[in-house]
Design goal:
Elements (H helix, E strand, L loop, with lengths): L6 H12 L4 H8 L3 H10 L1 H8 L2 H16 L5 H13 L14 H13 L1
């Protein structure tokens, strides 16, 4: 007996994909052959959408929020966000109208705040 695509299955697929699990793992977890999941993905847009949810989107959102925090001022949260971003990413782009600040200026601002 073949398994049917249900709203519950779609939810499980999306949740597992969001957590960064592979399609192979997802297929095993819901009790189907990995090829079946591939077939579903090709034939069913809801399955394809559920599988496209990944940690990349979540990380992009976190990065964007950290950039906004980092550029909001010189409080403790901004300093922490700036430090994290400078250590994690080569380049970050804030959203909206923010005056450009070089990495050196940000580093100096952080040092000034920590020493000040």
């Amino acid at each position: 007996m073949s398994k049917k695509i249900t709203p519950e299955i779609i939810t499980v697929i999306a949740n597992l994909s969001r957590c960064g699990h592979t399609q192979y793992f997802i297929a095993q977890t819901i009790g189907i052959n990995p090829q079946t999941l591939t077939d579903w993905k090709q034939k069913n847009q809801e399955v394809a959408n559920a599988l496209s949810i990944s940690t990349d989107g979540i990380l992009a959102d976190v990065k964007s929020r950290l950039v906004n925090i980092a550029t909001s001022g010189a409080d403790k949260d901004a300093i922490s966000a700036s430090t994290f971003l400078l250590n994690r990413y080569e380049s970050v782009e804030p959203e909206g109208d923010v005056e450009p600040t070089s990495d050196e200026e940000i580093k100096q601002s952080i040092l000034d705040e920590l020493n000040g």
